Queue: 4 jobs
Job 1
Amino acid sequence: MALVVFLKGVNVGGHRRLRPRALAKELRHLEVVSLGAAGTFIVGKALPEAALRAEIQGRVPFEVEMMICSGAELLRLASADPFEGQAGERDIVPFVGVLASPGQFPATLPLSLPAQGDWCLKLLGCRGRFVLGLYRRQMKAITYLGQLERVAGAPMTVRNWNTILAIAKALRGRTKPGG
């Protein structure tokens, strides 16, 4: 099964700029496909995680944190539809925080930020290395998203639920019947 790589903090606000498609092209010997501008990749060739990290870091001009998980983990998450029944309001965005490694999430969930008044960010649950939440389309949501690592107590990067669904679709397209 393929690996999925999430780079943390690239192409944010004009800092730590990276061209994901160009990086994927450099890594074509690993059957790498880029999804979007945030540094999300599917790696088709089987190799040890440490070797994959070295291959990517050797081609990125700055130190980069990577969250790497199996494609099977992402497919299980997507097929479970964890946001079913959540408010479908246009200003509410479902997201997934990808922790650096699986483990217990220390906070009691659900958790809303801010704790008082109308929430801007709401953490709903944790499934292995994936923290599930919602945020409102407001400028202050960025501040609360930035606090998630502190709440989690571990390195984490965030992707929109639509990105996770796009990864799952790409992974399903890579699997061959009977194989």
Job 2
Amino acid sequence: MKNLITSRQIAVVLTGDENIRELKKISQYAGWIELRVDCFMRKYPEKDICVWVKAIRKQVKSNIIGTVRWHKESQNPGFIISDDQRIFLYQAIADYVDCFDVELKSKIAPDVVSLATRKGKKVILSYHNFKKFASLKQLHFLSKKAQNLGADMIKVAVKTETEKDLFQLCQFVLSARNRISVIAIPMGKQTLYRLIPLAFGSVFTYAGLTEKTAPGQPLLSDFIFNKGEA
């Protein structure tokens, strides 16, 4: 995968198992870092979240995205964090991240957008479907709803099993990107599918560091860059 994409097109996902001391070098490979607070909470005490987030903030120059995934759009649907607790966690990490990611269909989406506005942060409103591909009509509806709520970006991560699905996802990126920045993630067995939307204007794709958090997700080690490309 060397030379296919730049560091600005990669968001590496952290879940708490990483070696904090080794994170500094990640900035040259990934322009974005997503902190999956919900994944962290499955393994470590809640009281350690801010310690974790602060330590990462000190180590990296990448843009940091903070998210507390809604169980209804998670790969771990049995792990439930209440809406009130999710809002509390977004507030707790607000000063140490550059951007929030919250699900467009979640009840707390307007609250997180309001928090981002007050704190001067960017917002990704996201939609995840691990079971099926969303229609173009539905994707456009979601993008307009995200715009109306005040999103800076919309992320659509949908199951993508066929070339037709991939083609339609790229069509969506092309037609929506002039209205709102789009992150399009095809989830499925074909890891290469993850790279294709980037050629059509998708902002970045995700890579795991110590674990894969979605179907077809590559690891950061799958991408090799020369330092000058970052």
Job 3
Amino acid sequence: MGAIILVAVLIPYNYIPAILIIMIGAILVKYTNPAIANTKNMEALTKAPVFAHTTTSLEGLFSIRAFHAQLRFDEANLSKLDRNHEALLAL
């Protein structure tokens, strides 16, 4: 923003392009902020199940190994991580 203002002040015929760039930037910010907020909200909502599943898996690790259920818990963990990363990478 400062660079655009500096160029507009130093070179007078750059006022119109500087104003257009500022207007386009303001429009982009106006329309992208709700999308960014929704994406951050979705990422925050999908983070809790990942931590909960990791905690419960670590607490029941001996039972999981005793019943040979490692593959099932690994697949569940990867599913939760994939859902979280989808939201995280959308940012």
Job 4
Amino acid sequence: MTVIDSQTQMLLQDILRRERCSVLQYVAEAFPWTTSTETKSLASLQHLIAAEREAMIGLWQYMLRQRIRLPYLPSYPANFTTINFLAFDYVVPMLIEHQRQSIADLERDLAALKDPGVRAEIEKLLTVKRQHLLQLEALVSSQPQASLT
């Protein structure tokens, strides 16, 4: 086991805290409103959220193995409550934007990391998030468009 410097430890704690309190994770508990035609898409979204949670657990376990203190995980920001019970077709584009920002944040964090083991862990999370961005974009394109006539 290599010793991970305190700056890297703090960055890992920040990443875990940020990812745990993400909009995507909040939506798992926010119950987007769906029509009967969106039931399959909602199930896909829930599967995607669970997979991302598993990726975060992988980072959490890595931190434990490296004896890095886990961060305090606060509750979700209060402004997330405006997402509750919104229509699925409204929520997904918002999730795409947040996912893009999360990917950009992780890419910035990755550039600051020197330890190969830590970089590998963040690259795993980044790979999952990139795949999920594609899946979220596919959810939007698979939704029937509302008629304006």
